[in-house]
Amino acid sequence: MSKVVNGVSLPDMPWEEKPAGCTKQLWRYSANPIIDWNPIPDGARAFNSAVVPYGDGYVGVFRIDHHNAMPQLHFGTSANAVDWDINNDAIQFVDEDGNPMPRSAYYYDPRVVKIEDTYYVTWCNEFAGTMSPTIGIAKTDDFKTFVQLENAYLPFNRNGVLFPRKINGEFVMLNRPSDDGHTPFGDMYVSRSPDMTFWGKHRLVMKSGVGGWWEGTKIGPGPVPIEMDDCWLVIYHAVINNCNGFVYSMSTVLLDLDDPSKVLARGNQALLSPEKDYETTGFVPNVTFPCATLCDADTGRLAIYYGAADTYTALAFGKVQDLVEWTKANSSV
Ligand code: BMA
């Protein structure tokens, strides 16, 4: 059995045991969704958001779509990682000298990761004044001041997901090059940086469709990879295009610890697909989009935070050891 490496103990994280009769590796929280429509006065929907343990509780960077449909990032806190208190004001990023950064037209799908003693936020950011997506990066030590760094890439790119530690002395980021529309394609790449500013050594990790039609349109990285003793466990989103449009599911892939461009095993089917009302009905129907996890290193309990129907925030549970075993036993490669 694989073990979690470099993890933290989270004995009080949200958790429910697998329901009797459940044959799947992931199961939903019985009180889903945890965030409903209109979570704050200025926001219509909170979804595709990031949470991390911090201090005595948890903090989050939330994607909040405002009533004009434009997404912003809002900071939130929680004692139990289920009930969230989200600021009505969007995060105002500053430059290295503390001056407010010009606002982007949109900020969405954030991830948050702690690397050494600094927290980094990555998100899909407007490339200055072009309405074209790239990956924005900011750092914070206290979740009060968020210092925005250079965008990582030229347009177009969505989904920048940092590994939780340097690999061979470099920062490493999974990402998904795209177009500036709803992107009818998408493969997963990995890029490296010595300093969080200059990104290069780009490598393909995996292409869509290898496992079958369920992931035939596009794939992209989800939450921050989880370090196991024999692999990186990565949850990814996988998109099918059917008569009704795109459907977003999730599955798992295991990457090589020293060279995460190498796929060790990759799930051959979806582990969670839209099926509940809050996943199939909302602002964008049929979306389950994972952006964050909490993992208790002692037990391997995993809570996945996913956006449901671009409207709600929901939780699913699993065990990391079981997900690694399942991926190895049900691999498409
Ligand atoms: C993707 C991203 C996600 C969104 C999904 C479904 O391209 O924009 O934020 O959840 O589409 O609308």
Oligomer: single chain
End-to-end Cα distance: 21 Å
Helix content: under 10%
Which consecutive residue ranges, at least 5 long each, have pLDDT under 50? none
- Based on Cα principal axes, name the global outline: globular
Helix/strand order? EEEEEEEEEEEEEEEEEEHEEEH
Instruction: Please state roughly what percent of the residues sit in beta strands, choosing from under 5%, 5-15%, 15-25%, 25-35%, 35-45% or over 45%.
Output: 35-45%
- Total of DSSP H or I helical runs spanning 4+ residues: 2
Q: What is the β-strand count?
A: 21
Q: What ligand molecules are bound, each kind once? A: beta-D-mannopyranose
Protein structure class: mainly beta
Largest sheet: 5 strands, antiparallel
Averaged pLDDT, please?
Answer: 97
The value of Rg in angstroms is 18 Å
Describe what this molecule looks like in 3D.
The protein has 333 residues and is mainly beta. The chain is built from two helices and 21 strands. The strands form five sheets. Strands 14, 15, 16, 17 and 18 form a five-stranded antiparallel β-sheet that branches. A four-stranded antiparallel β-sheet has the order 1-21-20-19.
